[in-house]
Amino acid sequence: MCAPGKFSTVSKALTEGVCSSCAPGKFSIASGPDAGVVCALCPAGKYSAVTAAPNNSTCAKCLAGTYSEAVGLNHQDGCQPCVPGKYSSGPGASRAQDCLSCPAGTYSGASRATSADTCAPCPAGTFSVHLNATSLGFCVSCGAGKYSAREDAPNSAFCLLCAAGTYSELAVITRAQDCQLCGTGKYS
Predict the structure, then answer these.
(1) Taking a C-beta distance cutoff of 8 angstroms, is the pair 177, 162 a contact?
(2) Is residue 86 part of a domain?
(3) How remote is the C-alpha of 113 from its chain's centroid?
(4) Tens-level pLDDT at each residue, the chain (188 residues)
(5) Within-domain flag for 84
(6) In a domain, 87, yes or no
(7) Which of 142, 134, 87, 139 is nearest to 112 (CA)?
(8) Number of separate domains in the chain
């Protein structure tokens, strides 16, 4: 007769002596002579370091910023980190797709990120169309003759042309006032 957290390969086991403990990452809720011959696995997104776990409540969720597609994990280290440019705010993520992308106009070099707050905005005067960008290098300047006051611009539509009669040779400017007047006898 096996107690919860144990199993036996002997059919209708009548003594505890033929029972084995479920390994970490597994559990068994059945007891008595009809106890299962195998232990159940902790589901994806969870792990358990407990030996002879009597139920699935010992299966702890992977922490926010991590996920696990594998079942039967026996340690928290089995949970994979969300890669840079992505984050997971809730615990128990069971797929890589549960790690959300930093939106266009932002970037993050952090792994195991737990919120969108780790996604830094591209500076004013730049934009980025890339989801899950991992560095400032994904932010592209608006270019000469254009400006943008907006941080986190998700595309070039936020880059505005200097007004007629003004120009800028600089690749990154953030205000219309930074556009210079054309010299006498010149126009734009």
Answers:
(1) no
(2) no
(3) 6
(4) 677 888 777 666 566 677 888 899 998 876 655 555 578 899 999 999 999 998 899 999 999 999 999 999 999 999 999 999 999 999 999 999 999 999 999 999 999 999 999 999 999 999 999 999 999 999 999 999 999 999 999 999 999 999 999 999 999 999 999 999 987 766 66
(5) no
(6) no
(7) 87
(8) 1
